Every structure is written in structure tokens, then in C-alpha cells.
Amino acid sequence: MKINLPETGQKRVVIVGGGFAGLELAKKLVKGPYQVVLLDKNNYHQFQPLLYQVATAGLEPSSIAFPLRKLFQKCPNFYFRMTEVQAIHPEKRCLTTPRGIVWYDYLVLALGAQTNFFGNAQFLAHAIPMKSISEALYLRNAILSDLEVALTTPEYERRQGLVDVVIVGGGPTGVELAGALAEMRHWILPKDYPELDASEVDIYLVQAGERLLPGMSHEAAQSALYYLQSMGVHVILGDRVIDYDGSWVCLKSGRRIYSKKVIWAAGIKGQTIQGIASTSIGPGNRICVDAFHRVKGYNDIFAIGDVALMKEDPNWPEGHPQVAQVAIQQGLNLGNNLLRQMQGKDLIPFRYIDKGSLATIGRNKAVADLPFWNTQGWIAWVLWLFVHLFALVGTKNKVFVFLNWVWNYITYDQSLRLIIRPWLRKKQGENTPSCPE
Amino acid sequence: MKINLPETGQKRVVIVGGGFAGLELAKKLVKGPYQVVLLDKNNYHQFQPLLYQVATAGLEPSSIAFPLRKLFQKCPNFYFRMTEVQAIHPEKRCLTTPRGIVWYDYLVLALGAQTNFFGNAQFLAHAIPMKSISEALYLRNAILSDLEVALTTPEYERRQGLVDVVIVGGGPTGVELAGALAEMRHWILPKDYPELDASEVDIYLVQAGERLLPGMSHEAAQSALYYLQSMGVHVILGDRVIDYDGSWVCLKSGRRIYSKKVIWAAGIKGQTIQGIASTSIGPGNRICVDAFHRVKGYNDIFAIGDVALMKEDPNWPEGHPQVAQVAIQQGLNLGNNLLRQMQGKDLIPFRYIDKGSLATIGRNKAVADLPFWNTQGWIAWVLWLFVHLFALVGTKNKVFVFLNWVWNYITYDQSLRLIIRPWLRKKQGENTPSCPE
The whole model's pTM is what? Predict the structure, then answer.
């Protein structure tokens, strides 16, 4: 069965994935003579850099997500279909989905990345990933529920397992999450849980390398380490988590930490999709592309964003970092090229312009690597706030996130610490729903 | 095992349920010489009158929920435990929970009400209740997901089943929900789903009685009917849903409606709890109490709010309506009486003061029955807005709900149409999570 899409005579560009790359491309293409079809398994775009604030109950999901349909409300050549993609059939120029077959003239894979557990079944079974809003909400619920259970757990050891958190990976996600949890412990815990001893709550950040924030400058790494330690986070450098059974975290050094919550921020790999030749797939599941984002071995299939591996940008011979900035610029470049191609103009090879990196650790504490300037502290923090605010999709989201931040900054307290569980249909005779914990 | 609560020498009042009644009582009692223990299966208070706006993506859950701990942050004699209650043991003055045993000097049951399917297994198995935030979110996801599926469903009949909604029950919840859905169809659908024919979307409101809003005046019922019909809602009066198999709704008149979504707003019954003698339970599972909220047959157990049935208020010989106002006044009355008792003062029997009823149907359309005045239309609508705004718990919630409403009023559009699914842990080898639909 064919998915219903009108045959308008326009060339059809099918974009798989509504992340930064796919969205930027779609926004560009709808202005041109293409039929743009966007497929995503969610009906919203999510702003991943702020997921950690959803996980720590600082922001609501709706503040960092935006419905894809609403973004393209006035674009008659735009079609959204909420669906997964089962497989690509390049020889037939179509892809299959549970909703039907979609034909394409050009296919753009903006699949993004997924959590990389490096094939470890234990991590997969017990660690908590944090790459999506659903996962961030799961983590939020787990943190809050475990605090509730800890309150009625008299045994010190068992209570430790409930209140302690181990974060694996010292990149931006790990650092920002550790900082936010430390702030939660400092400002919220004594007020909300006066019966718990906040000093019993340990936050561990385990980084395999010898420094934090490997993608950033040494000053940034030093400051981040200093900030985190001053906030009481146990930063463990040069050690590696080798096993986790849901209770005990084992490090390579032999150290063991008892904790019910291990958050996995230690690595990502490209999302996979059936139908792309394995010879086109590079390290970390990334799809090899040329300087015009064309997937190796295909003429009409492109890949952009975290899933793409381009080695033809002279400054990035090993491929670009898997960050939002690259994705946005790639989406824009491909969009422009597809429009230029229609106009018979030459294509422009992609060159990434690095505008710098930012990471925030807490109130007034952030690190910034800018092209000509590295700074840490308050200025970096303000910069971080504004960069993230303006990067959010939608005016209302910008306004509401800003108001939330101002509110939190003044009151040192949010009011989002709700454990909202999915509704499960009751069986007959059952009185109250059971608590899935 | 005993749940850990300090023995302070204060009399312990255990309140089960943090709804309107329980919350009001706790707020009163923490000012007195009691140890107040609040038990709830959720860690938040939910503002039920606005659930329908969560279901129709007009408000976020966090706007109408408030964390119970945050409300009592500065009360040293207050203890919250997030848990269900398994049974009461009146002879031992304790109750059992999965977390341990809780002893009480006074026990207050503020259990609230649950959806009443009148024992029909089909309704229980297929209809969607709307008494909690989790259920409202389930409904929101169902509405939005079904619209997505409808888009790729070429067959008219099957598509009808996906887009049509049947609401059972013409009380405030049914009326407000029908109105909100009609507005969604009018303002949102053509913009978000231009490919769907909005005129194909049917909203049915089925009311067994001959009029809507049985608890309100005839003018209110007439206006509500007029408003709903003018907004294109199919209001079916004097007919009753007798069966629903998940696809076909069968009415007593023989009429059949094909719909995947039947929302059950046709009745409530008291939440039940083990350990209260069946002789103390009245019609609709309500617990019979005297004018001081004392449960029949017990000296130290009280019931307030939706679950309580008091026939000793001269103006309400059949018991009070199960609404927020009654619950709030009962919580306040019981709180005062428990404080008076400590001071050796006489207890004051409960008398309900009805301040009026309000229901909103849409923009500028509401109905209001006030003690000396009934009004419909814009004034009632403004009144409704302010009454609900001020009744919300928490300054931030008030501010954010107000801003949300202003935003929606001006733009005729919210940006909350996100289908956020719970995270399910992936199994090894699985690539993408499956869609629970």
C-alpha cells in the first residue's frame, strides 16, 4: 500500500528525522519548488541540549519540544507523516513504513544518533539513557520516586543506593547533568525532603579520559572540574565503568559504587536503517557522505547531522563533531544545494564554521570556548542562556523558558517535581492502578 | 514494619488523599498542635476542573498540578509519604501500606472519587476515563495519534472511527470537553491537518437525561446546549450508551456510532478502601458520615470530600454534590473542629454554602449559576477564568496558566500538541522503540 501523498509534479524530497538537521533542511526546501515530506516517529522536534533540565525538573517537556505540524502550518508543499521507517529500497527509490510505501526523488537521512552502550548487555539492561524527552522524563520520575522510597528506608546501605546517582561520561551532557543534580541537592532537597540527610546523597561523574569536556579547551575542562568539585560532585577521571548489574557499578580500577541509577552519557552512535549498503557505513554507525552530503554509492540519497560522516571538509578530516551546530549548518547547506541544483547552479561543498562551544554547570557557572576567546564563569553563563534561548524553536517556547529560568533564578526552586506516570487501563475488579516503579 | 515517623508526643492525624479536601485540611492542621501525615499515591495535588484542558492540549500537566512537598516546605509537623493504602485496621488504629504500617490517632479519609462504569466490563475495557492527569494525557495522545493515523487511512469508514469522538455524560466534564474539542476542530485542525476534512470530524455528546448540566439551572443547560450545537457538536439527549466494543457505540435507541474513542464522563463513585465496615458505606460507594465528618460507627475516623456522604446538612438531605467547593469547605470545617477540640471548644456541624456553579463551553462562552444571579456568555466566561485562576494552587501555576490562556486567546493556537510516550527500555538488538498505540 502506498502512503497517500499527492502527485503534484514537483520533485519529492523525503526527509527522515525532524531533528536539527532535518528541520533546517525542511524549512529551507519548502520555499522552493519541491514537495517536502518529513517523516519522524515523534510529532515534535526536541531541543536536545536542554534535555538535562527536563530530567532535573527545571523545565517542562513542552518548553523544549515543538510540534512539527505547527512549524509548517502555512506551507502547502509540506507533508508530515508520523511513522518509523522500516527499510529503504534504493533500487526502487522508495522506503517502507508501517503506514505504507513512500516514493522519493531525493531521500535525506537525518536520523540522528542513539545511545551507544558499546554492545554491553548489562548497560543496555540497567543504565538510563538520556537522548530523548521520554528518557529524560523517565529519569526525572526515577530520581523523585527513589527519594520518596529512600525516606521510608531505614537501612543506610539500601538508602544510599536509592539517593546516589552515577553519571557515566564527562562530555557536556554528563557535566551539565551532574551540575544540575548538585544544585538540586543543595537548594531543593533540604526544603522538600528535610527528613533526608542531603550529605548522604552522592553524585558521581565517571569519565574514562583524563579530563572533562574532551571537545573543549583545557581552561574549560579545568573550570568545569573546579565548579563540579566545589559543588560536591565526586568527579572520577581516568577510570571506566566496566559492569553494572542494576545495583553495583564496577569500575576498571576495582572501585565499586552501589547505586540504583546509572545515567549513560558516555557515547553515541548513528541510528541505523535497513537498506543502506554496509560499505557506506563508517565508524560509529555513521553514514559516509561526500562534501555535498551524498551517501557513498548513491546519487539520490543524502545524509546530514549526527548520522553523517563527512571526511572531505579540510578542517575536519575525521568527520565533524556530532553537535547541533553541525547539523543545522548541514541542513542549510543541503537545502541551498538542492535549490541551486533546480536553478542549474553549481553546488557548494559543505564547510563547517565552528562558532564555539558552551557548557553550563550551575547558577552563574558556565564555560565558553569562542573562536577568539575562552571564558568561564558568569559571562559564559549569560552567554549560554541567551544562545540556548534563541536557538529554541517557537516564540512561545522562548518566552516560557525565559520566564521559567527567571522564576527559578529568583526563587531557587521550581515547581515541576511531579511524578506523572503513564495511565494503565485497570482490569476489572481492580481498584487503584498499580505503581510501575 | 512501621513506616518511619517521629514520635513527637503530638496527636497524629493521618490524611489519606491530597485532593481538595485533604489539602485544605492539612493546610489548616499544620498550624495546630498536631502531627500531620499526608498519604497519597501521587506526589502532587491535581486541579481536576482543568483536566479537560490538559486532554485537549491547552495546558501542561505541570500547570494544574502542584508538588505536595513544596506546599508544606516550612511545616516541621508535616510529613508526606507517597504510597497507596492497602487496608485500615480500626481496632489497632493503624493502616497498612506497601511501605509499612502507619499508626494514627485520627484518620481522615479524603479518598476522592473514581470513574463509575456501573459494573460494565466493556466500558471498563474500552472507554477512556478522565479523572486524573495520567488519564488526560492518555486521551491527548490518543486524539493526536488517531489524527496522524487518519491521514494515511484512505477508507472513509475507518477514518471516521479514528477522527470521531464520543463523550458519554452531559455534566460539566462532558460539556467542557465537547466544547474544547469543537474549538480544536475549528481552529487547529485546518491549520495542522489541512489534508483532513474537518467536517468529517464528528463530536458526539451523549446524555442519558433530557437536559445537559443536571446540577445547574435550566438557563445554563439551555445555553450550554445552544453553544455546543452552534459549535457543531452532536448533542444526543435522552439516550443512553449500552455497549461499546472498542469500535461500535450502541445506544439504547438502537443508534450506533463507529468510534475508536469513547470518553467516559458519565458518573463517579467513591474510592474504596479495605477495613471500613460495609454498614458504613452508602450509595455510590460513599462513606456515611455525621455532621462532624465522623464515619458512622467509628470515633476516630473521618471522611471528607467526594467520598463522604453526609445527610445531616438540612439543605442537602441526600448528601452534597461531589464537587471541589464542598471538598474545600469540608476540609476547612474538619480542620477547624480538630483544632477546636484540642482547645476544648464545641464542634461546629458542617453546613455547605453553595457559592454557585460555572461551566465553560468555549471562547467567550460559559454559563454561571450564582446565588442571586444566573448569567451566560462573556461575563460568565470571564468569571470562570478568574475563579479557576485563583483556585489554582501556587503563584507560578497561576501566572503560567494565565499567560497560557492569554497566548491561546490571542493566537487561537497552542503549541502543546506533543505525543510524548513513556520510555520503554529497549531489548538487546532492538533499534528503535516500538510505538505503543
Answer: 0.93
